[in-house]
Each structure stands twice: as C-alpha cells, then as structure tokens.
Design a protein that fits this description.
single chain, 358 residues, alpha+beta, 10-stranded mixed sheet, 4-stranded antiparallel sheet, 8 helices, elongated
C-alpha cells in the first residue's frame, strides 16, 4: 500500500456550490494538468469527503476536497553526511544557504559531494522521505539562498511564480571597475559561445535576458559592490552581463577581465598576487583554471592596471557572487516568505580588503 504526504485540503464555500470538482482542483487549488493526471492515477490522490471520486462530480458548499501525493525518494542519490546551512523548513519546503564550491545536484561524472547528497542524508537521518527537487540552481562557485521543494505541488507553485516574474531574487557581487551609471538595466540576449560551448556570450540571436543592477559601494575607481536583480534566469547571466559592460566579477576564472589576454605577464602577475594575499584565500576548493593569455604588448598604464586586477582576483578563490535575498509566496498559505543570507566569510574578507585599500 502506498504511503502519502499529509493531504492538502480545501473546504468548498457556499458560493461554489454546484461547481465541478475538476474546476475546484484547477481554479481554487491550482493543481496543474500534469499533477492532476498523476493524482487521478493514485489510489487516494483525489478525495471528496473521504471518498475517492471522479473529477467530473459536482461539489456542494462545505465539502472537503483533499489531494494526496505519494511519498518519494531520490534513490539514485547517494546519502552523504555533508553539513549545510538551513534557513527554513516545513513539510513543503527546505530553504538553505548554499556554500560556495558545492554543486547543487549530481551530474555526469560528479555523483557525490553535492548539496543533494547532503540533503538526502539529512532527511534519511530524520526518517523522512522526499525527492530532492531544487526549484532553481546556483553555479557551483556561487553561494546563497536556494529553495528545495519537498513535493510536486510545491515545486509547481514556486516554478510558476518564477515564470511569472513574481519571485524576487537579489544578488550581491564585487566587480572590477565601476559601472558607468549608478543603476541600470542590462538587456542583452544570451546564448552559448560557438567557440566554447561551456561559456555564454551576449549575442543578438540569444535568449532574452534582463539584469537590473544598483551600485551600493565604490572603492575608488578600482572596484564596486553591486546589488543585482534577475528578471530572467539564464545560465551565468550575472557573470556574462557584468562582463559585457566592462565590469567582470572579481575572482571569476571563466569571464575574466579582457586585460588578461593582452600580455604574457598576466599569469605571472596573478600568481604573485595570490602569494601576497594567501591569507584571504583559505578555501577548500580551487578556482577555475584561467585561459592562457595571448602575448601582446601592454602599455605601462595597462600593466599597472592588470597588476591590480590580478591582485583582486587572487583575493578570493571564486567569483564574488552571493544570492543574498529571495522572496516568494508560500505554495499553501500564500503568505510572502523572505529569506536573506549574509555575505559569506570569503566575500566579507574581500569587502574588508577593498575598503582598506580604498
């Protein structure tokens, strides 16, 4: 016999007397077509006053409508005792503050040491059964707020909010240079780089992508802290967009400052800066491998600028990007939930260095 999660219940008001059960499920309980088809095939998936019925029946005021989802597990994910920071949890959601350096979900060739492995172990240790369902993703080296749904209904509801643009996602980042305007929109279509498919570029033929930014603090003309709001969710969107306006993220090994390709001394400068600032880079993971620079002659001013850029990049072992805030409506109560995660230690140290140097 199947085991079920606690039911989601709706009491029919008098004003909806005579409605079809199907209408109640779709219009009042917001059950998607996909989930509705799944519930219809489940023994206790759809119940009216404690009895299994067809969705074509009519309801009466005061009737109790319940949907039940079968318990699931992520049998393909190996449980591992990996600690993680929990911001919130109930029977429908798990919200975490993801650390930098950890992949969200197992991928080909990387089946262990992910957030999913740690979450599955955590649930198993509590005697609970859920399938690991991240509602969105963060890059491996990006830290911050991440939402995991515990059932298909919750996943559907938050995903629909994201598609509708009602989920507020805010990021903090430290970038090279200072944007020309203190606030603005970066509206640049993004797609894969034909020459390097693992990278993304701004291209007229790409997918519509919009990032809103606001400069929060300036450190001379060398760097700035910006807050960013995503209106779309393309892969590497913030990193690509900030690079496209000449302000790449500090520490980003993939979308590096263009001066790195201008002189043969770039790698040597980056290495020297790394030794000088080793105290700021205590981390359990390695930054992305830099691309080899093309040997070109730098002016004295450019060489000095590159030395400063390399010094900052060596001060943090990953892109300085953190998902600082996330808000959305709870899938059941529909109250607004707001989650915030403070800057992690490596970004806080970088901030201290920038302020000190400025």
């Amino acid at each position: 016999m199947s085991s079920y999660y606690p039911p989601i219940t709706y009491i029919v008001p008098p004003s909806e007397d005579g409605w079809l059960l199907k209408t109640i499920l779709q219009k009042r309980m917001d059950v998607s077509r996909k989930l509705l088809s799944r519930l219809k095939m489940t023994e206790q998936g759809i119940m009216l006053n404690g009895e299994r019925v067809y969705i074509s029946v009519k309801v009466a005021g005061g009737d109790r409508v319940e949907i039940r989802m079968e318990q699931e597990t992520s049998a393909d994910i190996l449980p591992q005792d990996i600690p993680f920071d929990i911001l919130y949890e109930d029977e429908h959601l798990l919200v975490v503050n993801k650390a930098a350096g950890i992949i969200v979900h197992p991928t080909h060739g990387h089946y262990t040491d992910t957030l999913a492995n740690g979450v599955v172990h955590y649930w198993a240790a509590k005697g609970e059964q859920y399938r690991f369902r991240p509602v969105h993703r963060l890059d491996q080296e990006t830290s911050g707020v991440l939402v995991i749904a515990k059932n298909p209904y919750s996943h559907q509801h938050i995903s629909e909010q994201m598609i509708a643009g009602t989920v507020d996602k805010r990021y903090s980042a430290f970038v090279h240079g200072v944007p020309a305007s203190p606030a603005g929109d970066i509206d640049g279509p993004i797609d894969r780089d034909p020459a390097e498919p693992h990278r993304r570029i701004v291209t007229p033929d790409g997918y519509p992508s919009l990032t809103r930014y606001e400069v929060k603090e300036v450190y001379g003309d060398r760097a700035a802290r910006v807050e960013l709001k995503l209106e779309t969710g393309r892969t590497h969107q913030i990193r690509v967009h900030m690079s496209s306006i000449g302000c790449p993220l500090i520490g980003d090994g993939m979308y590096r400052h263009p001066l790195y390709g201008r002189g043969p001394a770039a790698e040597r400068l980056a290495g020297a800066a790394g030794q000088a600032d080793a105290v700021l880079t205590a981390a359990a993971y390695e930054p992305a491998e830099p691309e080899p620079p093309a040997p070109q002659k730098l002016s004295a001013e450019e060489a000095e600028q590159l030395a400063g850029i390399a010094e900052l990049d060596a001060a943090i072992p990953r892109q300085a990007l953190h998902a600082v805030r996330l808000s959305f409506k709870h899938p059941l109560g529909l109250e607004e939930l707001v989650f915030e995660a403070p800057l992690p230690p490596d970004m806080a140290l970088l901030e201290h260095k920038l302020r000190h140097d400025a």
